[in-house]
Amino acid sequence: MAPSTSVARKSSDEGSLDVLVHTTYEAIKRDILGNRLRPGAKLIHRSLAESLGVSRTPVRESLERLYQEGYVTRIQNRGYFVAEIDMQEVRDLYATREALESFALRQIMAAGVSASQLKSIHEVNTRYRDLCLQNLSRERLLVDREFHLALAGLSGNAYLCRALAAVFDRLILKRRVEGFHDTRGMAPHKDHMRLLAAIAKGDAAAAQDILHLHIDSASGRLVHYLQEGAAEAVRR
Fold it and tell me: Are residues 66 and 121 in the same domain?
């Protein structure tokens, strides 16, 4: 039996709202990740609705989703604010990143990797090398993210890759907000090369060791930078 007109219209309206919520969510999230909405900024429903040309309903649902994902905080009787990322969250994010990437690497090594798959990741790493040479910090962060997500993607676990992408987004946001610039030069690119070489040889233990040291070094540099900044703020 065909659905009644009212039911069909309701279904269509709900579908349109879902699309609107998704585009509104993406727009607000993009402004947070782009540092146009800075940590601590209050998110006012009416202002967001007017700037995005939508009603308050998709804004309200988008903010709730961003709250669930940790991008905004919700304070009773005060509203929503762009979330701060503190030192502990940075440590937790890197620990989560390592857990996800290590698991993906175990899956990859167990299944095996083809030459064509490795070739495509080497191509991403070549672009990363060029950005290291040019000292383009923002682009370098994004291509580093692309490299690690492409590698994790060989595991075939789409859910893991989505979770890992969210971790990278938070870490990149923190680095940009704090003005952190990596000073290791070509060292991360060389880590990538060593990791891919170990994978090509089928040396799972070496690959895991290289990945651990690579992530641990990145974590240590950012945490040290933040600690130095906090100490400087106290001295002032």
Answer: no
Q: Tell me which of 57, 82, 107 is where a domain ends.
A: 82
Domain stop point among 31, 64, 82: 82
| pTM for this model (two decimals) | 0.77
Annotate the chain with three-state secondary structure: CCCCHHHHHHHHHHHHHHHHHHHHHHHHHHHHHCCCCCCCCEECHHHHHHHHCCCHHHHHHHHHHHHHHCCEEEECCCEEEECCCCHHHHHHHHHHHHHHHHHHHHHHHHHCCCHHHHHHHHHHHHHHHHHHHHCCHHHHHHHHHHHHHHHHHCCCCHHHHHHHHHHHHHHHHHHHHHCCCCCCCCHHHHHHHHHHHHHHHCCHHHHHHHHHHHHHHHHHHHHHHHHHHHHHHHHC
| 15 shares its domain with 38 | yes
Residue keyed to tokens 């060989």: 154
Digit-coded pLDDT (tens) for 144-176: 999 999 999 999 999 999 999 999 998 988 887
pLDDT at residue 10, as a whole number = 41
Domain that holds residue 227: 87-235
